[in-house]
């Protein structure tokens, strides 16, 4: 019997919350293949979208991630440009929107992973699926 796969490893690598082996997404996060969420885990046959509209809750997680990212980008912009005034308004606005645009695939993937692994009490990890 193999070792248990950690929850952190499963979240970072986009693995199923039920078996921590099957991939949740098709395609890469940043690349030419657009990432999509699979409907069923290829390893344990767990439905990924438990009920219709399940991933609408991921929007709230993504919103929280976006707020943190916007604050971080605006603080970094403050360090490089200085305080917000009429001359630096467009610099702040462009840098914040660019940060949101660049981090969109990251937010898409990890808001769903956080919802599945941390915020879903109905999906429990089953170690017996952890065999290769």
Radius of gyration: 18 Å
Shape: elongated
In sequence order, what are the helices and strands, one letter per element?
A: HEEHHH
Average pLDDT, all residues:
88
Distance between the termini: 9 Å
Proportion in helices: 40-55%
The low-pLDDT segments are none
Count of distinct structural domains: 1
Count of extended strands: 2
| β-sheet strand percentage | under 5%
Spatial arrangement of strands, main beta sheet: 1-2
Number of helices: 4
Question: Structural class, from helix and strand content?
Answer: mainly alpha
Chart the SSEs and their pairings.
Layout: H1 7-12, E1 25-26, E2 36-37, H2 58-81, H3 89-102, H4 104-117
Summarize the structure in words.
The protein has four helices and two strands; from the N terminus they run H-E-E-H-H-H. By secondary structure, the protein is mainly alpha-helical. The chain has one domain (7-130). The protein has a two-stranded antiparallel ribbon. Helix 2 (58-81) crosses helix 4. The radius of gyration is 18 Å and the shape is elongated. The termini are close together. This is DUF983 domain-containing protein. The chain crosses the membrane at residues 54-81, 87-106. Keywords: Membrane, Transmembrane, Transmembrane helix.
């Amino acid at each position: 019997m193999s070792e248990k796969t950690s929850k952190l490893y499963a979240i970072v690598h986009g693995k199923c919350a039920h078996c921590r082996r099957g991939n949740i997404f098709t395609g890469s996060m940043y690349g030419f293949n657009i990432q999509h969420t699979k409907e069923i885990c290829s390893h344990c046959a767990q439905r990924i979208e438990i009920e219709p509209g399940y991933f609408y809750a991921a929007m709230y997680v993504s919103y929280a991630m976006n707020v943190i990212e916007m604050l971080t980008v605006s603080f970094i912009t403050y360090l490089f440009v200085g305080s917000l005034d009429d001359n630096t308004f467009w610099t702040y606005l462009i840098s914040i929107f660019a940060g949101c645009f660049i981090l969109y695939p990251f937010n898409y993937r990890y808001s769903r992973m956080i919802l599945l692994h941390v915020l879903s009490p109905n999906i429990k990890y089953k170690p017996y699926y952890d065999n290769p």
